[in-house]
Amino acid sequence: MTQEEMFKEIRRLAEERDALLLAHNYQRDEIQAVADITGDSLALSLEAARTERKVIVFCGVHFMAESAAILAPEKIVLLPRPDAGCPMADMVTVEGLREMKARLPGRPVVTYVNSSAVVKAESDICCTSANAVKVVNSLDADEVILVPDRNLGRYIAANTDKKCHFWEGYCPTHDRLAVEEVKQALAEHPDALFMAHPECTPEILALAHHICSTTGMYGFAKSNPAKKFIVGTEAGILYRLRLENPDKEFILPSRRLICPNMKLTALEDVLKSLQTLSPRVTVPDEVREKARVALERMLAIPR
Ligand code: 13P
Ligand code: SF4
C-alpha cells in the first residue's frame, strides 16, 4: 500500500468504526497529518472525554491512553503501539511514592499527568506543564510533594513560595539537551528567541526567552513578531509550528531531541488497530475512580 492509500483506508475505517484519531504533538508527521486532532497530552484526553464517537485511537504513549480511559470509561480506547511507554512515568512506583508520603506526612502530592494511572490514584491532584504553577499555588498547604519530574519540579519551586519536595525522575529526551548545544544555537542565530519546555534542566531554562508547554509554544510562535525560534522540546513539534507559520524559521538546537517512544507509532499500526479494534487500554475501576478524582481536581482549576 502506498502512503496515500494507507491514509485513505485509515480515514475510511475511522468513519466505519466511529473512531476519533488523536495524535500527540510529538508524533511522526504523517500520524499528525492523518489524525482528527493534534495536541498536548491534557488537551487530547479532554477531547477523548468530550467526543461522541465510540472509539478513541490514541497515537501517543501509554499514560495518555490511560488518561483517556480514566476520563472516558465508556469508550473503547486503543493504543496502536502497546510498547509505547514513557521512561519518566516508569521512574515512579506506587511503593516508592507511598514511602515518600510516609516520610513527608500531610504534604499534598501533585502528580504530573506524565505518570501511570496507579500513581495518579495515589495522588491528591494532577498537573500538566501548562498549569503546574497554578495547581500548586491553588493548594492550601505550605509544602508539597511533586512527582515524578525533578525538572518541572524545580521550575515550579522557582515560581512559588511553597516548599517543594521532588521525586528525582526526568524525561530522558529533554534532560539530555546540553547547555553547550543551546549556547551554540543562540550564537549562530542571535536574532532567534529560545523557547523551552519545563522538562528541560534548570540550566537550559535559565537561557530561555520563554518557558512553556508544547501548546504554549504554538501560541508564542504565532503571536510573537520574531521570525526565528530555537525550540527546546521534542522534534515532532516542528511539524505544526512550520505548517502554521510558513514565514518563520524553527531551529532544533540538538539532533537528540527525539523521544523513541513517541516515534514508534506508524501508519501501519494505526490501520491495524482500526481493523482489529486492539490493543485496548483499560484501567481497573478502583484505580480509575481515585485517579479520576486527582485529574478532575486539576480540571476544576482554570487554565
Ligand atoms: P505535553 O503534552 O504536556 O506538552 O508534555 C510533553 C511531553 O513530554 C509529553 O510526553
Ligand atoms: Fe516521556 Fe519524555 Fe517521551 Fe514525553 S518526551 S513520552 S515525557 S520520555
Task: Describe, in plain words, how this protein is organized in 3D.
With 303 residues, this protein is an alpha/beta fold. It has three domains: 3-85 and 262-282, NadA-like (Rossmann fold), CATH 3.40.50; 88-170, Rossmann fold (3-Layer(aba) Sandwich); 173-251, Rossmann fold (3-Layer(aba) Sandwich), CATH 3.40.50. 45% of the residues lie in helices and 16% in strands. The chain contains 16 helices and twelve strands. It has helices at 3-17, 29-34, 41-50, 62-71, 87-90, 94-103, 117-121, 132-137, 150-158, 172-175, 179-188, 202-205, 214-223, 238-244, 267-276, 285-299; strands spanning 19-24, 37-39, 55-59, 76-78, 109-112, 125-127, 143-147, 163-166, 193-196, 210-211, 228-232, 249-251. Strands 2-1-3-4 form a four-stranded parallel sheet, with helices on both faces. A four-stranded parallel sheet has the order 6-5-7-8, sandwiched between helices. The structure holds 1,3-dihydroxyacetonephosphate (13P) and iron/sulfur cluster (SF4).
> Any idea of the CATH class of the largest domain?
Alpha Beta
Strand order of the largest sheet: 2-1-3-4
N- to C-terminal distance: 43 Å
Q: Identify the quaternary structure here.
A: single chain
What's the β-strand tally? 12
Query: Fraction of residues in helices?
Result: 40-55%
Q: Specify the structural class.
A: alpha/beta
> What is the H-and-E element order?
HEHEHEHEHHEHEHEHEHHEHEHEHEHH
On the 0-100 scale, what is the average pLDDT?
A: 97
The CATH architecture of the largest domain is 3-Layer(aba) Sandwich
Overall shape: it is: globular
How many structural units, i.e. domains? 3
The CATH topology name of the largest domain reads Rossmann fold
Report strand %: 15-25%
